[in-house]
Write a structure and sequence with these properties.
Rossmann fold; 3-stranded parallel β-sheet; elongated; mainly alpha; 193 residues; Arc Repressor Mutant, subunit A; 10 helices; 55% helix; 3 strands
């Protein structure tokens, strides 16, 4: 667990240990990287905004030596391009603060249970159920384009984009755009630029 906020570190450590996990906490990514040099951790939870080295740089450097270690990125300052960057770099999940205990525990359990290359067959079936136009809209949403830009790029009205967006969220069983980004990145969707 890497976070420069002591309260977050302490509360997550207590939660994880209470649920049977062995936890090492670090306030700085450089110290965590040094600790990971000796042995690969089972899972890493890291904040993004930290002094010296941010969580995304930490994730990228960790991947060079421990490619199969799942990394869960947490942040209080999320935006779609940031989420896309984290997921493209191999993050197992991207979670916005504040999050529930259930959310972080489920994310850690999921990250540790699957290999980075596995795509859930149910998610693949949902992707296959999208129409070609819905797939185009989803790829542009995942990059972070607003409805007006998507409408312009696809030569459709913003209202039509809203309808496709609602259908994509429904078919992909995503409750929010952030969740859609996580699902798409885990499934290996290569977003349009």
């Amino acid at each position: 667990m890497v976070d420069d906020d002591e309260a977050v570190r302490d509360s997550l450590q207590l939660l994880l240990e209470a649920n049977g996990h062995q936890v090492q906490v670090f306030e700085a990514a450089l110290r965590a990287l040094e600790a990971c040099a000796g042995a690969a951790p089972g899972c890493v939870v890291t904040d993004i905004r930290m002094p010296e080295m941010d969580g995304l740089e930490f994730q990228e450097r960790l991947a060079k030596t421990h490619r199969d270690v799942p990394v869960i990125v947490i942040t209080g300052h999320a935006d779609v391009p940031l989420a896309v960057r984290a997921m493209k770099a191999g993050a197992a999940d991207f979670i916005e603060k504040p999050f529930s205990h259930e959310t972080i525990l489920a994310s850690i359990a999921s990250a540790m249970a699957r290999s980075a290359a596995d795509i859930d067959p149910a998610v693949q079936a949902r992707l296959d159920d999208l129409t070609p136009r819905e797939r185009e809209v989803m790829e542009l949403l995942v990059v972070g384009h607003p409805n007006k830009v998507i409408g312009y790029r696809l030569d459709i009205s913003p209202r039509t984009v809203e309808i496709h967006r609602a259908r994509v969220l429904d078919k992909m069983k995503a409750r929010s755009l952030a969740e859609l980004v996580r699902i798409a990145m885990r499934a290996g969707v290569d977003p349009a630029s």
